[in-house]
Amino acid sequence: MGESNQKCAVVTGGSFGLGLAICRHLLAADFEVLACGRSQSRLDDAAAELSGLRTLSVDVTRPADRDRLFEAIEGFGRPLDLLVNNAAISRAHDYTADVTLAADQARGEIETNFAAPIELSRLFLALRREKGWESQPATIANVSTPGALFPLEANPLYSATKAGFHFFTSSLRRQLVDTPVTVVEIFPPALDTGLALDMEVPGAAENGADTIDAVAARSVTGILSGEERILPHPESEALVGAVGDKSEQLADSVNTSLKRKEGWEQFKRDGS
To answer: What is the CATH number of domain 8-257?
Structure first.
C-alpha cells in the first residue's frame, strides 16, 4: 500500500506492450500502479521488471472479474486518480472467407474493445459517487487508434469497435465537462506490440521498443498536463489531423438540439 498522498492508477492490458510502458512512466511519476491483464505469467514478468508494480489477473470482459478489480481498487484506501482503458484485441476478418463465416467473430472484440471499457468507466464513476469522492479530480484515459476514424477493411471489427469507443469517449467528455473528471483520448500509431499478429500493418515493425516507450512517455505527460486529445507520434498527428476538428464542430451543432426527454430515467431500460 502506498503513501496516503500518493496518486493511484489502474492500467488495463498493463502486462506488456504499450500498457506496460505506460505503467513504467506512471511509476516514474510516483503513482501507485495496478496493472491488470489476462495472463498471470505476463503479469509476473511485468512485476519482476517494474519494481513496485501491483498486478491482478482479470479478464475485463467478465462481470465477476470487473467486480474483483474494483474490490482491489477499493483496497487502495483512497480515491483512484487515473483509469487507463488500454486493453484491446485485433483480428483479421474477411466476410467472403469460410473461416469468418463459420462462427461468431464479433463478440470477443465487441466485449474487449467496446463493452468492457465502457463498463469499467461506469464502475469507476459509480465508485466515486458511492465513496463520496466526486469532488476529487480524476482522469479516465482511453487508448484509441487513428483507425477509429477510418474504416479498416482488413480488420473491420477492430475499426468498428474502436470507432464506437471513440464516440463514447467524446460523448462521456461532454457529459462530465462540469465535473472534476477529465476524459482523455490517446491515439497511438501502429506499434510492434503483437496486437495484430495475423496482419501486415504498415509501420508497425519499425515502431518497436523505443517508439513504444516514447509513445507511453508522451501519453503520460499529456495525461498529467490535462490534455484531452493526445497525439503521441507524427503518424498519429498526420492521420488524426487529416480528419481535423470538423467532426467536433458538427457534434457541437447536433448536441445543442438533441436532448434527453424530461423523465427519461423512468423509461424502461430492458429493451422492451
So the answer is: 3.40.50.720
